[in-house]
Design a protein that fits this description.
Strand order of the largest sheet: 2-1-3
Shape: globular
Low-confidence stretches: 14-18
Mean pLDDT: 89
Strand content: 15-25%
Radius of gyration: 13 Å
Helix content: 25-40%
Structural class: alpha+beta
Number of helices: 4
Number of strands: 3
Oligomer: single chain
């Protein structure tokens, strides 16, 4: 499981211990919808809640959920890096689809 992007603690399998990981988005600028994708443990996203726009438990994040974040303009994170953080590897087709969605919002 992914390590927390904030505290660096390695993932735990037992959510009851408060170590479950979630995909979070943190807006690049105050008041703007698009945010950077990170992976936070429960403790970190709770501490940073006022800065976080989206929280999705990692076990619920599929490629289609990730693409929906790009489609709805909730993130413009580098797709390669986002896939690495969330899935542990970057699937080329998923990265291409996310890049196309970013470009469709920019144009």
């Amino acid at each position: 499981m992914a390590s927390c992007s904030r505290c660096g603690k390695a993932g735990e399998k037992e959510p009851a211990q408060g170590k479950a990981r979630s995909l979070v988005t943190i807006p690049y600028e105050q008041g703007l919808g698009a945010g950077r994708i990170l992976v936070y443990c429960r403790e970190c996203w709770t501490e940073m809640a006022e800065h976080i726009a989206e929280v999705i438990p990692l076990e619920m994040v599929s490629p289609s959920v990730l693409l929906d974040l790009y489609r709805t303009g909730k993130t413009t994170s580098d797709p390669f890096t986002a896939c690495q953080l969330v899935f542990g590897h970057a699937e080329p087709e998923l990265v291409r689809e996310a890049q196309a969605l970013i470009h469709s919002h920019c144009g």
